[in-house]
Amino acid sequence: MSEMSPAKAARLAEAEKERKARKKYKITVITVCVCVLVLVLFVAVFSSNLFYNVTSAVEIGGYKFTVADFNFNYVNTYNNYYNNIYSLYGSYSSILSSMLPDTSTSLWEQAYPGADDGSSWGNYFKDSALDRMRSVAMLCTEAEKAGFELSDEDKAAIDSTIASVKAAAESGGFPNVNSYLSRMYGKGMTEKIYRRNLERDSLAAAYSESVESAPTYTQEQKDSYYAEHKDEYDVIVYRTYFISGNAVTDDEETEEDETLSAEDAMAQAEATAKDIVSKATSEQGYIDAVAALHTDDEDYDADDATMMESRGANLGTAIKDWLLSADRKAGDVEMLKTPDDSSSQGYYVLYYLSRDDNQYHAVSGYYGLVANVSEGISRDDYKTDEEYDEAVKGLTEINGKTVLGTYTNGTDKTLEGFQKAMTDAGDFLSESGAITSSGIYDLPDSLSEWLHDPARVPGDTTTVYDPDFGCFVVYYSSDDGIYADLLAESSLRNDDYESWYNEAIEPYTANTGWEMRFAGKIPSLGD
């Protein structure tokens, strides 16, 4: 073989170099193209609903939750919190402003009150939503293990909710239900995903109720439990009056100097309390002694102002031990100083009346209330107040009987039929609602007596007039047994359920993915 000439070798080397360069360029172009394709696909997925309603953001047990699933729970957690706070403090705007976030700005940019780590409202609702999802995942898993399924009634309720959402979307001018749901729950929410979450929630709630209602308890168990917790359940009937011992700062707009030091204020409060105690040799003596301090108050009701009925569990710490003492007897009177760390200093003067151990028959029913009718009646047309009151009573009872007639003249003689009749009564009623054992103390004596008459049978109806309220239109549903037994059984059931729940939920942890950084961005909540 002849040797290659230097010139030829140089040309071959140059050709190989060019080949390698072309290969390198090809690889580089392919790599760049692949990266661009991945970026394009990512942007396409992220900007579409797939990122929110297909990829898994949270895994709990065997359940996978998308961003849209999380947002469903996030919004419901917020709504539940808002409704609870508003129902408790709706009439106190200053409290509401401190306990509710501002929805005009992002929840993630507002500090959660009381959080030591500077967490936001968004973080608070995120953690609460994840806890809710843990509960749903556990309960649904346990339900499936037990072969527990939704009832036809539950399924119908879900269909009804979907129908209501569609109606809201249409009346709101949205092009379709999915756009409405996306507005309410964030990007990616669809009717299908919304239904899936309603089904999960319904299954979890139904199974939870079935587990809690499953146990049965003997009379001995109920008696024993009540005896152990009687200080929580018994109702204490007593009179109470508080005399403030707080320092007083002078009001410059008044002529008199009202300045009073804390020491002097407490001394005056103590002297006033001792004076009431000395005069409270009887219940009337107590009432009169307190009323003497309010002679300039025309609206002061001496009989009702100091009267209290409270379950033991709800008594204030300053008075609880004295009122619940086994030594208490009717007519006992005492003055009690507030604890040193109390925000309001002073003395309570207490007069003990009785202790009710809830050994009465609990009843269930429903009522509608026709308020006292005064329209078209002038007090000037009657010689006495009694005659005027009788006229008001007569007209009010006529309206009450008219309302009852809408039920008695109808064909549906069930409780549901009565409730519908109350709804149909419209403007006749000032209010309506269920009668339950827990609200028995709020009923007028005349109504309570009718409900507890041994002759009562389910389906009984009547009208009962009370001068302070008006005419009650009443339906008697059932005798639910001794109320003390109901209290004990309810607590036993709750304790057993909590034990089961805490053990069952322990292995369920929320494993979140990187997609969670995009969760909780809800247009309707300011995000």
Topology:
Layout lengths: L5 H42 L2 H4 L2 E5 L2 E4 H23 L3 H7 L21 H25 L6 H20 L5 H9 L5 H23 L5 H10 L1 H4 L1 E10 L17 H18 L3 H9 L15 E5 L5 H8 L8 E5 L8 E11 L4 E11 L13 H24 L6 H11 L5 E5 L9 H7 L9 E6 L3 E13 H23 L4 E3 L15
Antiparallel strand pairs: 1-2, 1-11, 3-4, 3-6, 5-6, 7-8, 7-10, 9-10
Helix pairs in contact: 3-5, 5-8, 6-7, 6-8, 9-17, 11-12, 14-15
Protein architecture, described:
The N and C termini lie far apart (81 Å). It contains 17 helices and eleven strands. It has a four-stranded antiparallel sheet with strand order 4-3-6-5, sandwiched between helices. A four-stranded antiparallel sheet has the order 8-7-10-9. It has three domains: 56-214, no CATH class; 235-356; 361-485, Chitinase A, domain 3, CATH 3.10.50. Helix 6 packs across helix 7 (177-185) and helix 11 packs antiparallel against helix 12. By secondary structure, the chain is an alpha+beta fold.
Beta-strand fraction estimate: 5-15%
- H/E order of the elements? HHEEHHHHHHHHEHHEHEEEHHEHEEHE
Tally of discrete structural domains:
3
The secondary-structure class comes to alpha+beta
Distance between the termini: 81 Å
Which ranges are low-confidence, i.e. pLDDT below 50, for 5 or more consecutive residues?
25-47
Residue share in helices?
40-55%
Structural shape: globular
User: Main sheet: which strands, in order across?
Assistant: 4-3-6-5
Total of DSSP H or I helical runs spanning 4+ residues: 17
Number of strands: 11
Radius of gyration: 35 Å
Main sheet, how many strands, which sense, barrel?
4 strands, antiparallel
What do the pLDDT scores average to? 87
